[in-house]
Specification:
With 496 residues, the chain is of the alpha+beta class. It contains 21 helices and 17 strands. It has helices at 21-31, 59-62, 80-85, 96-99, 108-112, 163-169, 191-195, 222-226, 248-252, 258-261, 280-284, 291-299, 307-314, 338-352, 359-362, 373-378, 387-394, 399-421, 426-436, 440-452, 455-458, and strands at 3-12, 43-47, 66-69, 72-75, 103-105, 124-126, 178-182, 201-204, 210-212, 232-235, 240-243, 268-276, 300-302, 319-320, 331-334, 470-472, 487-489. The protein has a 5-stranded mixed beta sheet. Strands 9-8-16-17 form a 4-stranded antiparallel beta sheet. It has a two-stranded antiparallel ribbon with strand order 2-7. It binds iron/sulfur cluster (2 copies).
C-alpha cells in the first residue's frame, strides 16, 4: 500500500449559468501574457457542441489518452517511439485554428481617429500578428448555440446516436443545452506526465497537482497530444508547454483556486481524498464500463470532511468526464437534470393531449408528483438529452450509471417538494428516495451541500506539506512498455 493524498473536485452542472467568470478569473491571473493569449486553462463549453479546441473529444483526430493493447495500457498517440516518428510533423497536434486565432479590438481608434465623414470603428486585430483579421471563431464560439449545424450537430458524442435520435434532439421546440466548465483534471494516471520525453511534467505526491517544470521542458509538445482533454498548451513565445496549476500558491496558503473562488453559480467543490498509488495501473486497466465504479471502490478513501468524497462516493452523484480515456480524472461532474425535468413535462403533455403553449401552467399542477415511481423513472428514457448522449460523456457509454445519478437528483427534488411545497406525500417521497438508493438524511445532506453550502463547506483545502513531497515520474523504468506510474524523491529529499 502506498497511500497518498489527492485533491479532487466536483462541478455540479445543474448550477452552472455559463457566465464565464471562472474563465476570466483564470485568464487575468495566469494566461494574460504573450504566447498564452489563446490559452484558456479554464473554459466553459456549451453542450451539445464541438468545444475548445474543436472536437477535442474525438480521439480519432487527436489520439490522446491511453488505450489497452495486449492487456497493457499504452499511450494512444504519444510515447517514445510514436514521438520520434512524429518529431518533425505531428498530424495529431491541434493547431491554432483548432483553438482560435486570439484577437483584440483597436479600441484606441475610437477616440484617437482624426475627424472624418464616417464614424471610426474598432477593427479586430490578431494578437499574434498584430494585423487586422476576420474573426471566424473564439474559445466559446458555440455559446448557447444548441442546434446549429456547425457546432451542436458536430458534437463527437452524437456518433452513437441514430439519425432519428439526433433529429429528435434537435427538434426546435425540444432543443436543450447545458454548460460544461473544464479545467485540467489533475488525473491519477496522467497521460501528459507519461508522454513527456524530458521528464518535465510531474504529479506532486502530497496533493496530486500536475505541474510542468518550465526549466526542464524542451518543447516536444508530446503532452499536448497525449492529454485527451487538451488541457496542456504550447506557449509560442517562451517555447515551453504550460497547463492549469490549480492555483497551487493559493492552495498552499489555504485558499480555493481562483476559478472556484469566483464561481458565480457556486457549482464547484474541492476536497482531498486518499488513494493507494500501488493500485493505479490495475484500476486504469479494467474493462471500459467498469472504469467509473472500480475507481471509487478500490482506490479512493475519503478524507472525512471532503465534499467531493460525499458527492462522488457516499451519495454516488458524480461521474468523471470521459473515463474511457483512462487517465483517471480527479474532477467529477454531477450530470445535468434540468433538461431532463423539462422532458418529463413534455411526456406528460403528450399523454394528456395538451398543447405546448399551455406548458407553463403545468408547472403549477401536481402532474409530476402524483405519477408512479416506475413511471417517473421511465420518463428518463424520453429525456431531451438521450441517456445515450450523457452516457457518452460521463460513463463510457453505460446508460445505467447516468440514470442512477439522475434518479437520485429527481428523488431529492421529490423529497424537497414534500418538505416545503406539500404537494408530494411523505409516503411518496420515501418510496422514491428508497428506490433511488437514498435515505432522508442523505437527501437532506445533498440538498444542504447543493443549495445552502457556505464557502468553507464547499472548499476543504488540505494543509500544505511540501516537505513530504514525492513526485510521480513519467515511467517506472523496470516495466517494458508500461508508462505513467511510480514516484521519485523530491528535490528536498535528495538534498538539492
Ligand atoms: S492528462 Fe490532461 S487533464 Fe490529465 S493531468 Fe494531464 S493535462 Fe491534466
Ligand atoms: S463561474 Fe461558475 S457558474 Fe459561471 S460559468 Fe464558471 S462554472 Fe459556470
Amino acid at each position: 500500500m502506498d497511500i497518498r493524498a489527492q485533491i479532487s473536485m466536483i462541478f455540479h452542472l445543474d448550477k452552472c449559468i455559463g457566465c464565464h467568470t471562472c474563465s476570466i478569473a483564470c485568464k487575468n491571473i495566469w494566461t494574460d501574457r504573450k504566447g498564452a493569449e489563446y490559452m484558456w486553462w479554464n473554459n466553459v463549453e456549451t453542450k451539445p457542441g464541438t468545444g475548445y479546441p474543436t472536437k477535442w473529444e474525438d480521439q480519432e483526430i487527436y489520439k490522446g489518452g491511453w488505450e489497452k493493447k495486449g492487456g497493457q495500457l499504452q499511450l494512444r498517440g504519444a510515447g517514445k517511439r510514436k514521438g520520434l516518428v512524429n518529431i518533425f510533423h505531428n498530424p495529431n497536434m491541434p493547431v491554432i485554428d483548432d483553438y482560435y486565432e486570439p484577437f483584440t479590438y483597436k479600441y484606441l481608434d475610437l477616440i484617437e481617429s482624426p475627424s472624418m465623414d464616417d464614424q471610426p470603428t474598432a477593427r479586430p486585430v490578431s494578437l499574434i500578428t498584430g494585423k487586422p483579421i476576420d474573426i471566424k471563431m473564439g474559445p466559446n464560439w458555440d455559446d448557447d448555440l444548441s442546434g446549429t449545424p456547425d457546432y451542436a450537430r458536430n458534437d463527437p458524442n452524437l456518433k452513437n446516436l441514430s439519425a432519428a435520435e439526433q433529429e429528435a434532439m434537435f427538434h426546435l421546440e425540444k432543443m436543450a443545452f447545458y454548460y460544461l466548465p473544464r479545467i485540467c483534471n489533475h488525473c491519477l494516471n496522467p497521460a501528459c506526465v507519461a508522454s513527456c520525453p524530458s521528464g518535465a511534467i510531474y504529479k506532486r505526491g502530497e496533493d496530486g497537482i500536475v505541474l510542468i517544470n518550465q526549466d526542464v521542458c524542451r518543447a516536444w509538445r508530446m503532452c499536448v497530444t497525449a492529454c485527451p482533454y487538451k488541457k496542456s498548451y504550447y506557449n509560442w513565445n517562451t517555447g515551453k508547454s504550460e497547463k492549469c496549476i490549480l492555483c497551487y500558491p493559493r492552495i498552499e496558503a489555504g485558499f480555493a483556486p481562483a476559478c472556484m473562488h469566483s464561481c458565480v453559480g457556486r457549482i464547484r467543490y474541492l476536497g482531498v481524498t486518499l488513494y493507494d498509488a500501488d493500485q493505479i495501473e490495475s484500476i486504469a486497466n479494467v474493462d471500459e464500463k467498469e472504469l467509473v465504479g472500480t475507481l471509487a471502490d478500490s482506490t479512493i478513501k475519503a478524507a472525512q470532511n471532503s465534499p467531493t468524497y460525499k458527492f462522488a462516493k457516499t451519495w454516488g452523484l458524480a461521474l468523471p468526464l470521459h473515463p474511457e480515456f483512462r487517465t483517471l480524472p480527479m474532477l467529477f461532474y454531477v450530470p445535468p437534470l434540468l433538461p431532463v425535468m423539462a422532458s418529463l413535462k413534455e411526456t406528460r403533455q403528450k399523454e394528456q393531449g395538451q398543447k405546448l403553449h399551455e406548458a407553463a401552467k403545468l408547472w403549477d399542477d401536481n402532474w409530476l408528483y402524483d405519477t408512479s415511481t416506475q413511471e417517473l423513472w421511465g420518463t428518463l428514457d424520453e429525456a431531451r438529452f438521450p441517456l445515450k448522449y450523457l452516457a457518452s460523456l460521463f460513463s463510457a457509454g453505460d446508460e445505467e450509471q447516468v440514470k442512477s445519478r439522475l434518479k437520485k437528483l429527481m428523488a431529492v427534488r421529490m423529497y424537497r417538494r414534500w418538505k416545503t411545497v406539500g404537494d408530494v406525500t411523505e409516503e411518496k417521497s420515501n418510496e422514491v428516495l428508497k428506490d433511488a438508493g437514498l435515505t432522508k438524511d442523505m437527501a437532506e445532506d445533498i440538498y444542504t451541500l447543493t443549495a445552502l453550502a457556505k464557502f468553507d463547506d464547499r472548499f476543504v483545502v488540505p494543509a500544505s506539506h511540501r516537505e513530504q513531497a514525492l513526485e510521480m515520474l513519467e515511467f517506472t523504468g523496470d516495466k517494458k512498455g508500461a508508462t505513467g506510474f511510480g514516484f521519485k524523491e523530491s528535490t528536498a529529499q535528495r538534498g538539492l
